[in-house]
Design brief:
mainly alpha; two-stranded antiparallel ribbon; 13 helices; disordered N terminus
Amino acid sequence: MSAFAAALLVCVAAPAPAQQPGLLFRVFLTDGRVLTSYGEWARLEDRVVLSMPMRRGDPAAELHLVSIPASQVDWERTERYAAAARAQAYAGTRGEADFERLSSEVADTLNAIATIKDPAERLARAEAARRTLNQWPGAHFGYRAAEVKEVLGMLDEVIIDLRTSAGGSATELTLIAPPVAPPDEPLLPEPSEAEMAEQLLTAADLAETPVERSAMLQTLLGFLDRVANLLPEAWANLTRLRTEALVAEEHRVDAAYAKLRTTTLAASARSTARADVRGMEKLRSAVREADVKLGQRRPAEVQSLLDTLESDLASARAVQLARDQWDLRAPAARQYRRALTVSLRAISRTTPALEDVRAQAGPPAKRLPAIIDDWRRDRTRLDRISPPPDLQPVHALFRSAWDMGEQALSLRLSAASLNDSGRAQQASSAAAGALMLLARARADLDAALTPPKPPAP
């Protein structure tokens, strides 16, 4: 058993792979294009976020954050490559130390078996060591799986001998899955400056928003300036022209959609003011048609514009419905207004007297009895008027105002007769209330006679 432990140590004596200075992952797209990610990418719902390196030799020195649709990613290859990159990183850092520790533990176990007298226990210890060894590569990125497989073959021979010693069958079979092999995916070299530029173009093509796309293209132009002496001149010039054309196209599309929004909102305001429901519906269709002609390049902006139109359309429909209702009620409201003609004249005639009472400035006491008689007579006319159901609250305001006005005039006469300043103050308060109710009643009547208007923007 000691000889076998020595053989085990010899099998794991191969040198460890060199450590990598920086871990670069790749995101493979379904169309064959590739993006480089410094460190692992992150999948957030329907987007994939990664940091693209922009400086060769020192990838961490300059990174550009990129977000692309998860639906565009070849996930099988991307995850396979990620596993290979993790395996390489592990091999270059902790792998060898962990494997040496495993080897020592297994060797110690096998050496200890030689001191155990019970054959069954010796067999159990050996089989436990085999399980530990077999499972180790799967938990350690497949590191040194070939060496582990070789050692397992040697250990199986020992276990066969131990089974024979324990009275078992030498041909007894224990089904254990073979150790996990390292990912079979070749790692790519660090991208060149030209590849970085192409990847920026790819990221710009997959950008989620126009602002992000424009920013990516501007970053690419700056990158081309910085590494111009490291790129083939003809290729660099062609890439710059291509990028500048894309930037100009983004500006053109931005201007076209900005104009569409401005003209549409102006037309919407006019149609909403007229409660033109049909016009609003045509305007909504026109926006969709214009978006198709522009290539549907700004879905978020168009949706926002359509949402605004939908809100304006709902407002226009509500106003139109209110106008339909008003059209039904307007004849009765006009008839009620004509019936109030004499009463409204009385209000206009008596308002100066009520304002004098409110200010405690009059009117002359000798005129008050006649003013009160006229006010009561006009109240009788008001009581004979029958308002339509929807204007009953307005009529009630007029009646309350008339009652309060009569109270104010009567208190003023009493205050003048008794030279009572307290009653004069009460008269002033009543007059103020009457004038307020009259103003409110007239405003409500005017509103009932005015067609509904859209709310102010």
